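SUBJECT: protein chain
CONTENTS: sequence, structure tokens:
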Amino acid sequence: MHLAYRGCWLLFLLLIATDLGLGFPSDTRWVWLPAGAAVLLTLWAGRLAARAPRTAEPARPVGPPVAGRWSAANSPADRVPSHGTHRLGQACAIDITAEPGPQDPPHPGFSLLWPVVRPARAFPAFGAPVYAVADAVVVRAAGRRRDHLSRTSWPAVLWLLLIEASFRDLGGPGWVLGNHIVLDLGDGTYALYAHLRRGSLGVRAGDRVTAGQLLAECGNSGNSTEPHVHFQLMDGPDPDTARGLPFAWRGIGVPATGEVFDAGPRP
């Protein structure tokens, strides 16, 4: 399903490019046919993603994926789906960013026009350790995508929303999630960590990990405005077909959007 609608959009773009460059095909109906099919498949895929949501089930208790002081954004404590969609198993996902320490530079704020972008290293979350939330088996580990500049100004956000995000969606979950890890926690529960730092992954598919084990570092890869950890639980290993599951971090719960919380010392 998901491959079909992405294929239709790519075919539509290819036909447009061919028509503009070579004047072929002359019958524009052939150009719009894959676009219409892609729209229908997209709507169908959305209905399938939202089918029988499992968000009302009891929260799965797991350990926090980070250490130290962090703040939450797009939290399922405020709304479900937390990211405005059930797609990619992210109905109960949460985004967290690191809070700077007393000796650290302040967190860069959002700018209207300038600077348009900032380097990832300017944010306190970049390079922060990310840990296993439970004993698990690694089923996915992708870590080759680059860490891009921030999207923390109006020009950069508009670029992300209007152009970049659409092309990333056509590329599939890996383009959206960036560098990511999926853990099999057992009992049909899977944990996903997204937007990790390129080259920081210390595990690979098939590895067994223990709760608190270092997995990777926070980065700014994929569909990300600034370095942060995107965390979610799912009922399957493939985000394209999985449904989101509610979670609760032991000793913390589910922090609300804007809430600063302490995940404790490093394991």
Remarks:
- Residues 2-22 form the longest helix (21 residues).
- The chain has two domains: 2-49, 60-262.
- Residues 2-49 form one domain.
